[in-house]
From TrEMBL:
Keywords from the named record: Pyridoxal phosphate
Gene Ontology molecular-function annotations: pyridoxal phosphate binding; transaminase activity
Gene3D superfamilies assigned to the protein according to its UniProt record, in alphabetical order: Aspartate Aminotransferase, domain 1, Type I PLP-dependent aspartate aminotransferase-like (Major domain)
Source species: marine metagenome
Family: Belongs to the DegT/DnrJ/EryC1 family.
GO terms, biological process: polysaccharide biosynthetic process
One Pfam assignment: DegT_DnrJ_EryC1
Protein name, as recorded: DegT/DnrJ/EryC1/StrS family aminotransferase
Amino acid sequence: MNVPFFDLRVSDLALRKELLDSVEGVLNHGRILFGPEVDEFEEKVAQAAGTKYAVGCSSGSSALYLALRCLDIGPGDEVITTPLTWIITGNAIAECGATPVFVDIRDDFNIDPDAITDSITTKTKAVIPVHFTGLMCEMDRICEIAKKHDIHVIEDAAQSFGAEYRSQKAGSFSSVAIFSMNSMKVLGGYGETGVAVTDREDLYEKLKMLRYTGTKSDPAKIITNEAIYVSLNHKIDTVQAAMLLVMMKYLPDRMKRRTEIAIRYNQALSDIVLCPEFRKGDIHALYTYAIQAEKRDQLMKHLNDNG
């Protein structure tokens, strides 16, 4: 039997109907961009993340790029992050003209706060901790280091919507944080979607302009769209927001079930491999179940050969 790593089919007929109904609602009102579902989705994401504001974007990649842009990170700046991440973390930094500075991780796969301290220079503008596979970084120490050195924290929470560190939600520790809601994520849409969240109104207003080609709408319509910044199109589609509103209803049960399965794996595998941590006061989003093994390559080959 071949078990797929991801199975993105919608086999639940009741869920399929809800999703199709949500799309039909968008087609009926016709507001394909910035429809009411986008406003509702952003409000619910901000509430779930424990922040004041959320800005829907076309992808998590766009959200991270815009997070860097809204903090004026650019040429000559350095941004500290981890190499154990999807390539977009480094790409977004480089695309802004800044230099990614990669530092080591700890046994939990997350960035080492001591390594952050050792790598700070006069050029350091920000640090991007990545909550790898949904297990949050040691955010109290990272925020303390950032405050001491007057640098920004940008949480790359692409894999960790719904996670918590010491009962505080992912996305609520930083100047700006980002989530990915592409189809593979725990809260996954049906295509590409991302969100940037913040508590700062000035950054919220700037993010909204940056996602829409750097423009600001004129209510008087004297100027259709006044260009404030140089940017591209990073808007969220209403259809994605509508479908994600459906999926948000099922997220608590989905996360609960993933945790139950992961605990069962830990009980069966902890004597064979190093299993994911479940720390008191934390919630692991469990984007994936990542293990460490002494003979990694041989184990991977065995698993692939046997489905």
